[in-house]
Structure formats: structure tokens, C-alpha cells
């Protein structure tokens, strides 16, 4: 074999090795570019009013930071405060719902709240109602909330603990699913 034949074989082997190494690296590069994907927009220290299909206020959101994922069209929120208004024409007060983190579905039909979730309202008789849990899913258009986590519901003179929740926010009706324990407390007159 001549020196040209040897050089050709060596160049062919080098080209194959380079192609193979490059092919192995492409998966790592794609993973890095996906992990480094930036949100298409970021809001800082903001207040946002979301409207339903009828043009009525669905909820108001204020938070220090919101990021929108350009691919999934979802939003993640740091320490959100959601104010969910009562049904138009009712005498009810709005619900105020706070959490450590929040996630909003692409159409804004579902809010997933996680970490130290609290929801506060005043019922029709003027008594404060509060809920505490680690996770709460809110459906603002339906004025409904659900959870499968342990939850505590408090009203003056009464504390209710349980696991799981179905809440009708229109009717201010809260139903715990299981492991329910109630405690009455004497209230000052």
C-alpha cells in the first residue's frame, strides 16, 4: 500500500470518528439548549386583571414575578396573590388566595397553587373563613377549587381538619373529602 492509500484510510477514519463524536454530542447540546430556554416574557411587581369570555373579571393577580413558558404557554408565579371576585350582583366578598408558587394553564382556566396556600373570605353572616393547605387547584371561570392535600378550614368558634377539598366559591360551600375532624371553640360574646 502506498503512502497515499495510508493517508486516505487515516483521513477516512478521522472523518468517521469526528462524525461519531459530533453525533454523540448533539443530544447533550439539545438538552442544554432546552434547559437554558428563556421565558418569552417576565413581569416584575405587577397586577393583572384577567377577564372571562363575557368580559367579566375572572380574577386579579399580583405578584413580584411571573414568567411565561414560550412552548407550553403556561405561566409560573412567585408568591402570588389571587383575588377571585364574587358572582356579579351577590353581596359576597372576594376570595383572597396566597401561595409560595403558582402555575397558570395556557387558557387561564386552572390555577395550581403550591406551598403555604391560604384562602380567606368573609361569609354572608360577616364571619371570617380561612383555608390552609399545601396545594390548591382553582378554576376561576367555574368559581371552584379542589385539593387532595390535608386542609384546615377555620371560622370563629370552629376548626375543621381533613384531607381533600371540593369548594364551590359561588355558594361559599366547602366540602372536605376524608379524615374529617371538627373542633368547636367557645367564642367571646
Automatic annotation (TrEMBL):
Keywords assigned: Cell inner membrane, Cell membrane, Membrane, Transmembrane, Transmembrane helix
A Pfam family: LptC
Cleavable signal peptide: none
Protein name: Lipopolysaccharide export system protein LptC
The keyword Cell membrane is annotated on this UniProt entry: yes
Job description of the protein: Involved in the assembly of lipopolysaccharide (LPS). Required for the translocation of LPS from the inner membrane to the outer membrane. Facilitates the transfer of LPS from the inner membrane to the periplasmic protein LptA. Could be a docking site for LptA.
Compartments reported by the entry: Cell inner membrane
Listed NCBIfam families: LptC_YrbK
Keyword Membrane belongs to the record: yes
Quaternary structure, from the entry: Component of the lipopolysaccharide transport and assembly complex. Interacts with LptA and the LptBFG transporter complex.
Recorded topology in the membrane: Single-pass membrane protein
